[in-house]
Design brief:
This protein is 58% helix and 12% strand. The protein is of the alpha/beta class and 292 residues long. It folds into two domains: 83 residues, Methionine synthase domain (Methyltransferase, Methionine Synthase (B12-binding Domains), Chain A, domain 1, Orthogonal Bundle); 123 residues, 3-Layer(aba) Sandwich (Rossmann fold). Strand 3, helix 10 and strand 4 form a beta-alpha-beta unit. The radius of gyration is 21 Å and the shape is globular.
Length: 292
């Protein structure tokens, strides 16, 4: 769990691997260790350092200047960033670091403070969603212990449910979306976020939740006749056959469109069945909602 590859550092920080290698050569803040096969790896502390330095560098500080900062001075500069986007990114990085440290009490306190200051709607869109994207990288790389995952998931889940319950709009459509996760998929946070966004757009939601057998999905769809069936896949069982899954959805839901998002579809290169829409990013999803 305490060994990140340079690619994982790139995905989490937004800093290209080439740039990270240059930093290693020129400055003293990164000292990666190597495996027996000479592959770089980085500790939790080095991940935190890269996240903080990347943020300061993005908002105007030169790396050569950052390299000379004491730890307390670096923290002070991070907190003093005045740009609102920078502050959002700082909070997201802090939540990621607290997750790695399993400091759940401080993580919840940080979220609660931001909710009190900005409101649950802004917290969900500006903080929780980008935080979930980064946590997803840790999940897929097995850098989050199941205990950490459960603790963090339950806190974030509570915030999303509060947001869903309080979401209100004067908009209204005649469209209905059935949300579910297939058997073996328990990562519900992405689906809850989709529920929140749909409700904010005045779209009726039928929420089945996680680990839903296909026969149950078929029964609800037959009775309620939704316009769309939507699932969000984060991780699935090792024996999950995605091609077979797509074929089943295509053949058994001819009367409605099927929409899929999540990590598993991001790198899928084959042609999708005609009845299935893929959302590879939040922008794709928002475009899909607008078309509804």
């Amino acid at each position: 769990m305490d060994a990140f590859t340079i690619k994982e550092l790139e995905n989490l920080s937004g800093i290209k691997a080439h740039t990270i290698r240059v930093w290693e050569q020129r400055y003293s803040f990164l000292k990666p260790q190597r495996t027996s096969t000479n592959i770089r790896y980085y500790t939790n502390e080095e991940l935190k350092i890269v996240l903080n330095i990347a943020l300061l560098n993005k908002y105007g500080y030169k790396i050569s200047h950052i390299n000379k900062m004491r730890p307390d001075e670096l923290t002070e500069k991070l907190v003093s960033l005045s740009n609102s986007q920078a502050q959002q990114e700082r909070i997201i990085n802090e939540l990621l670091q607290l997750t790695i440290d399993m400091d759940i009490e401080k993580l919840e306190a940080t979220l609660n403070h931001y909710v009190a200051a900005k409101g649950i709607d802004k917290v969900i869109t500006q903080v929780i969603f980008p935080f979930l994207e980064k946590i997803g990288i840790l999940w897929l790389a097995n850098h989050v212990h199941p205990a950490q995952e459960h603790l963090v998931t339950n806190i974030v889940r509570q915030k999303l449910i509060v947001g869903i319950e309080g979401a209100f709009t004067h908009l209204a459509t005649a469209k209905t979306v059935l949300l579910y996760l297939p058997e073996g998929e328990y990562h519900e946070l992405g689906l809850l976020y989709i529920h929140y966004l749909l409700k904010c757009k005045g779209i009726k939601v039928l929420y089945l939740g996680a680990n839903v057998p296909m026969k149950d999905l078929e029964l609800v769809a037959a009775v309620k006749k939704p316009d769309f069936v939507y699932t969000h896949l984060t991780t699935v069982a090792s024996n999950f056959n995605f091609d077979k899954f797509l074929s089943h959805l295509h053949n058994h839901f001819p009367a409605c469109s099927v929409v899929i998002s999540g990590q598993i579809v991001f790198n899928y290169k084959k042609k999708m069945p005609s009845s299935i829409t893929v959302c590879r990013s939040l922008t794709d999803f928002m475009d899909f909602v607008a078309r509804m």
